[in-house]
Write a structure and sequence with these properties.
Blueprint (H helix, E strand, L loop, with lengths): L1 H72 L1 H9 L6 H19 L3 E6 L4 E3 L12 H11 L3 E2 L3 E2 L7 E11 L4 E10 H5 L13 E8 L2 E4 L17 H9 L3 E5 L5 E8 L5 E8 H4 L1 H63 L2 E7 L8 E2 L10 H5 L5 H4 L2 H16 L4 E9 L5 E12 L5 E9 L1
Antiparallel strand pairs: 1-2, 1-6, 3-5, 4-5, 5-6, 7-8, 7-11, 9-10, 10-11, 12-13, 12-16, 14-15, 15-16
């Protein structure tokens, strides 16, 4: 019984642990699946936002190119530019151009406007800025004259050792029959003009949109990074990830310049080699889900602790109940043993010898009192079947004795008596009275109880 109880308890605990492991496995799978689904949804949202921002920048570039074409195609501007070379009309032409260019500056947000010609001369038509021309502007101007079309310069740092990135818009002008070629240089601050277009919408505080330009295998910042030195130019995404992004724009989980894992997506700006990288920290994207998962985990752990305590209390109470039952059984057994010992002593001191055996006399005796030694036998002689009831009855009386027993049993008698001779172990014979009674065994079958009294 004790072993069975131990096995039952062991199986119950194994089943409990198996159920707990299964619940935790399902919870982990559900959490990971939810995180993947959340990231997939955010990828689509970020990609759509980046595409919209890229289109806004492309539209801004088209508007600026439209300004340059308007300058290049306006005959009045070409006429005023031509008058700059004539001493009589130079002052008037410069005044007219200044007023017109100030209006364009306010409308287009240009930081400064210069006029250059093919002889190397330049005019700072707006005197209220401290910008200076770099040597790289002349090759660009010649390229615009040859193509007879406006063009954007590559982004560059407008001041030596400075931190502001600028871009120049070149608008070619042909005046005086083309003998002298002119070009307007409209300078724009990339950060000042494009930062409003690159603002990350709510709700992510770690969200950041970077405008980049691909130069061979490097990526140049066109806008400064948040909280970083603006002189830092190389975007340190792994080259493999960057190549994948540039060759096939998509969303990826990569590490940014801070070493932080981010969800990044790339979108190309139409009409140029610029592109946008929109990124947000994965920790912020998954923060709410991780909080909910932690709460769920704490709930599961609380349930586990509660179930464990309840199980321990249940098993402790069950153990106490089993212990009490065992103590009661032991007490009853001890009482029974004491009663049996007392009965044995009574029977031992009496002249009555008690026998119990199947009525059909099959098998050894079920019980024989220890005082059978009065006849020279021991109880073990009967239990081991070395001596039987038939051997106890004298041979001359056995047939009569057996016939009498069968007769009474057939008649349904429950008690009867008979006198016969008993064979002692030493060979002597004594007369004895036999008192028979019948009773039913616990597992069925009829038992015959015989009390023998010598005399």
């Amino acid at each position: 019984m004790n072993n069975e109880r131990i096995r039952t308890t062991l199986w119950a605990r194994l089943a409990y642990m198996g159920a707990l492991i299964m619940i935790l496995t399902i919870a982990i799978w559900y959490y990971l699946a939810g995180c993947n689904a959340l990231l997939a949804g955010k990828k689509n949202d970020i990609q759509a936002m980046a595409d919209a921002k890229a289109e806004s920048i492309a539209s801004w570039r088209r508007e600026r190119m439209a300004d340059a074409r308007e300058i290049a195609d306006t005959a009045a501007i070409a006429r005023l530019v031509g008058q700059l070379a004539q001493p009589a009309g130079a002052v008037h032409a410069q005044t007219e151009l200044g007023e017109w260019l100030r209006h364009m500056q306010r409308q287009g947000g240009y930081r400064s406007i210069w006029l250059v010609d093919s002889t190397g001369q330049s005019w700072n038509l707006l005197k209220d800025n401290a910008d200076s021309l770099s040597a790289t502007i002349w090759p660009l101007a010649h390229q615009a004259w040859e193509k007879r079309a406006p063009l954007f310069s590559d982004p560059y740092r407008s001041r030596a050792g400075g931190d502001e990135i600028s871009v120049d818009l070149i608008a070619p002008i042909l005046a005086n029959g083309g003998a002298v070629r002119y070009a307007f240089l409209l300078r724009l601050s990339v950060e000042q003009m494009l930062r409003p277009l690159l603002q990350w919408p709510a709700p992510y505080a770690s969200g950041e949109i970077l405008l980049e330009r691909r130069v061979k295998d490097e990526v140049i910042f066109l806008t400064p990074t948040r909280g970083e030195d603006r002189s830092r130019q190389i975007f340190p995404i792994e080259k493999t990830s960057l190549k994948v992004l540039l060759d096939q724009p998509q969303s990826l989980l990569v590490r940014d310049y801070r070493g932080q894992e981010v969800l990044a997506t790339l979108s190309l700006v139409a009409g140029c080699d610029w592109f946008l990288i929109a990124k947000v920290d994965t920790t912020e994207v998954l923060a709410e889900r991780r909080t909910r998962s932690l709460q769920a985990l704490l709930l599961v752990l609380s349930g586990f602790i509660f179930a464990t305590m309840a199980q321990r209390i249940y098993h402790a109470r069950r153990e106490n109940w089993y212990w009490r039952q065992m103590q009661n059984a032991q007490a009853c057994l001890s009482d029974s043993v004491n009663h049996m010992q007392e009965l044995e002593l009574i029977v031992e001191a009496s002249p009555v010898i008690a026998l119990l055996f199947p009525a059909d006399q099959s098998g050894p005796l079920r019980y024989v009192s220890s005082n059978v030694r009065q006849l020279g036998y021991t109880a073990d002689d009967f239990y081991s079947d070395h001596v039987t009831y038939r051997q106890l009855i004298h041979a001359e009386d056995w047939a009569t004795n057996e016939a009498m027993i069968r007769q009474y049993l057939a008649a349904g008698a429950t008690s009867f008596q008979h006198r016969c001779h008993i064979q002692l172990r030493d060979g002597s014979v004594r007369q004895a009275n036999q008192y028979f009674s019948t009773r039913t065994a616990a597992r069925g079958g009829l038992l015959l109880q015989v009390l023998i009294i010598l005399g």
